[in-house]
Amino acid sequence: MRKFNTALVNFSIVFFLVSAPAFSAEKTLLDDAIRLMYNNDFSGSHRLIDRHLEANAQDPLAYTFRSTAYLFAEFDRLGILESEFFSDDSKLVEKKKLKADPVIRLAFFTAIEQSVRLANRALQRNPKDTNALFAISTNHGLISDYMAFIDKKQWRSYQTAKQAHSSALRLLETDPQFYDAMLSTGMNEYLVGSIPLFLRWFVRFEQTKGSKDLGREQLWKVARNGRYFGPFARILLAVIYLREKDYSRSEEIVLQLSKEFPSNKLLSAEISKLREKTRKQ
Question: pLDDT tens digits for 128-141?
């Protein structure tokens, strides 16, 4: 069961990322806020979210992204996004020694609660409101990630991840071209396909076959079509190729991302590590 828990922890971060609605091509402050997160400018991201809320006070997605900025900042502070954390299980023990910031924890869950309240209100008016469905799915994913990586409560993380998955499917039923919802379904496909067959009886996600190939295919759709979090889908693909020891392909993805987001020190640091792995392969 330890291998199951390890796999779940290492891949549960995926649930944090479901992208924005494909139906709207108009750029907003939220688009810019997310891009600032990629460049590790979390305070700048919060400022743009504040400006967005001045004109869109009832937008649940703004509070979802506020909680996203809090979570990413904690991940950055705790070093959770380092590639070694995903590829070396011994790092799990090391990360357990790190403690969450209680102030950030409160702010994170407060923003989640605000988003849920506004999203539920919107869904009462229109059950097919894709913006609200997106917020709900992402909120479940954010909580799942917090439970897995910071609180170290893997079973609760798994249960919340299942809620995120179901919400993503509901969103895709409403809008099949909402490609970013495939991030949740795609990574779940890959996750279930990566664990031993007998454990699949215990790890079940709705409408999931456990196909690693299908999982990668869906993630590439997110990477190519995602509005807010397409780049993170590429990060996840880089992690997948790293774990599969396809170092050159992982390096190629990370190199492209580092050029796109030059202020992200994590991406820059990983390039030299991947080049060394590629050289030794």
Answer: 999 999 999 999 99
